[in-house]
Write a structure and sequence with these properties.
Layout lengths: L1 H21 L1 E2 L3 E3 L7 E6 L5 E5 L4 E4 L7 E2 L8 E6 L5 E5 L3 E5 L7 E3 L7 E6 L5 E5 L4 E4 L7 E2 L8 E6 L5 E6 L12 E6 L7 E6 L5 E6 L5 E5 L3 E5 L7 E3 L7 E6 L5 E9 L3 E10 L7 E2 L8 E6 L5 E5 L3 E5 L6 E2 L3
Antiparallel strand pairs: 1-30, 2-29, 3-4, 4-5, 5-6, 7-8, 8-9, 9-10, 11-12, 12-13, 13-14, 15-16, 16-17, 17-18, 19-20, 20-21, 21-22, 23-24, 24-25, 25-26, 27-28, 28-29
């Protein structure tokens, strides 16, 4: 009799565990992108209106939060790496060969601007419709103060590839990078963090780590506080404007590609390992609700590398990555209870 009770209790507990899992919906769900091209950039101007770009000139757009994505690109354009809007109308895209595209009508039409370089441009950042920076290969940092009518090159000190740049105001900003064309040792190899307090007229090296390939993403929540992510699960934080950078425990060895904070406490990091251009694995999304003191790995329905993430509020976000991957959450990436 006792054995029967024990067996009944065991099976009841197992049933309740299975039932509890069955009552939850995943925090991240896959959206149909309509392409298998690698997707590298994402931006939403409101909860429903967003654009994703990537390899082969991929350019897809949604007006319903990603329930339907419409392909806009021709498939014959260069790799498009990054997209950013400074308001609902004005924005930029950048890509290979010095490509810079600009819109003043919310992305209905795009006009090419003269970048003055043939270097691949990896990331664009704008403060408003006039002030923006673009970064890329071989130490390239470009700056405009007139909406892109002219772009001027800033002196970056090193010939590394810059992967990201972020400004908290017209003067104070941080650029991060790593690796370079045709260099395999010091002083150019390794992760770089550069800082400016004069809008990029002069840049200083805050950190150079030769033990890792590079830093890929940066986000500043104010002039003193920021987060940098990079190769092999690296997360660094600062509270003194980058004078010191402290390592945070990520819980992963995957390369981390992008970081975004929706407020001082709530942030998301995405990543994955990329090899041989098209092979990717180890897709990773991490979440913090305490300013990075702890990072929690979230369950996602893919192993593809995730390249960039964007949140319109603390709960609503979109992440994009290799193989045409688009993930969407309306719960901050946390599993939700199913309605009975």
């Amino acid at each position: 009799m006792k054995n029967m009770n024990r067996n009944f209790t065991f099976f009841l507990a197992a049933f309740l565990i299975i039932l509890s899992h069955g009552c939850k919906k995943p925090g991240w769900v896959i959206q149909e992108s309509g392409t298998t091209n690698n997707l590298l950039g994402v931006w939403f101007t409101d909860l429903n209106t967003g654009t994703v770009i990537g390899v082969g000139g991929t350019f897809i757009h949604t007006t319903d939060g990603g329930n339907k994505w419409e392909i806009k690109g021709s498939g014959k354009d260069p790799v498009l790496w990054s997209i950013r809007f400074c308001d609902s109308l004005n924005g930029w895209i950048v890509g290979d060969g010095g490509t810079i595209g600009h819109t003043t009508n919310g992305g209905v039409t795009w006009a090419l601007q003269s970048s003055g370089t043939s270097e691949d441009l990896i990331r664009i950042f704008c403060l408003d419709k006039n002030i923006a920076w673009a970064v890329g290969n071989n130490g390239t940092i470009l700056h405009t103060t007139n909406g892109g009518e002219t772009w001027s090159r800033q002196t970056s000190l090193v010939m590394t590839t810059f992967w990201d740049i972020f400004f908290i105001n017209p003067d104070t900003g941080t650029a991060v990078g790593g690796g370079c064309n045709f260099c395999f040792g010091p002083p150019l190899y390794g992760g770089y963090i550069l800082h400016t307090t004069d809008g990029g007229d002069t840049w200083t090296i805050q950190k150079h780590d030769t033990t890792m390939f590079g830093y890929y993403g940066v986000f500043l929540t104010n002039a003193g506080t920021g987060t940098v992510v990079g190769a092999k699960g690296t997360i660094l934080s600062t509270t003194d404007g980058g004078t010191t950078w402290n390592k945070q425990l990520s819980g992963t060895t995957s390369d981390l590609r992008d970081v975004l904070f929706i407020n001082a406490d709530t942030g998301t990091v995405v990543g994955g390992n990329v090899e041989l251009a098209d092979l990717s694995f180890g897709g990773t999304i991490l979440r913090t609700t305490n300013g990075g003191a702890t990072w929690i790995k979230q369950e996602i329905p893919t192993q593809k590398a995730i390249f960039e993430v964007f949140f319109t509020d603390a709960n609503t976000g979109t992440a994009v990555g290799f193989g045409g991957t688009i993930l969407r959450t309306i719960s901050g990436g946390m599993p939700m209870k199913k309605k009975l």
